[in-house]
Amino acid sequence: MPRTAPRHDRDAGGPADLLAAKAALRSQAWAALRSAGVARFPGAVGRIPNFTGAEAAAERLRDLPAWAGAQTVKANPDSPQLRVRQRALEDGKTLWARRTLAATDGAQPAKLTALAVLDRVAPAGTALDLSGIDLRHADLSDRDLSGASIRGATLRGMHLDRVNLAGADLAGADFSQAILRGGSLRDATLGGSRWHRAAIPGTGGLATPEDTGPPGLDAAAIAGRDTPPVMVDSSAGPALCLAYSPDGELLAHGAGSRVVISDAATGQALRFLPGHQGHVAGVAPP
Amino acid sequence: MAFSPDGALLATASEDGTTRIWSAATGAPRATLTGHDGPVTGVAFLPGGAVAITTSQDGTAMLWDVADVAMAARLVPLPGGGAAVLLPDGAYKIDGESGGRLWWAMKLCRFGPGELDAYGPGIRRLPDSEPIRP
Question: Can you give the pTM of this predicted structure?
């Protein structure tokens, strides 16, 4: 009994006649590769096949005027396009994957594909390069970014769950207001990275009571190093004074005998500072 | 204000947020209970006299171990009709939604009930049936 070839376009959308035409073209290409005996392991059918001459095809692509005029190249993450991606970087093109990762409206599967493209673009032994990318709209949960270059990237406000950043280069990256749960920061390079109002409720390589964390993480809140007192909201008295922090992100006001620190953008109270005996009559930024 | 059941102590609640314990016989100050975030509006001893309870304009009530001069539990009514109990060792009970009434602040990062249980020292939710005092 003949084996049914798996559909490669299970998740593709579009008009049925277009999908059928693409499926027919795909079958034609698979058949041609098979009959010519040029499909590389594990064979052509049912996948984006690698083939003898993929590298030569990439070189021919380079001769096209469209290549010469392109500033950005979009390439999928599969093996036959490896040379295309390498040549794109050598020729000073921007890989579309970087834009896809940074797009505010991109679907998560496309972003994961983009991440895979970037992961496989570099020759073996070199690091995944996410430097300078605005990653805020990508879900990086459970991703292994160990050893990656994330220099100068923007991860502001992200929820990074179980992201392995061990040995990653985070110099100059913006982790302000990000929350890192699980994962690892072991041996990561932190120079110049920003951690204002970031929280690390538990990450491998730090956050044990004995470990105060690397000095680059002074600004972050780290479980085990920074004790979290419980806050109880109350209408505790008249507000007689208020002040913005110099960066405009925080608002402090007196409320009865307490000082309330709030997020200036959302108005949400973050923390109460106790200790005054009478009503707080003045607050000033440091 | 309230006398202890045996008449030996007098407890007074103050607008300054503190509750003071005095010797009823001599008038000597014995202890000051601090912890409320607003004026204390009432104080009473539980039968037996070992525990005092205070109410405050901060919207919470506190149980105090009189001999140790230590807060034993803070009772926090929640907006939706539920309530939370906070213990000094970090343990807590909560029945209902916190409604933003209470949270844990690690530096300037805000975490709701349950979010820090696995991480913060001593922060753990007790079963509803667990007694809050031995």
Answer: 0.75
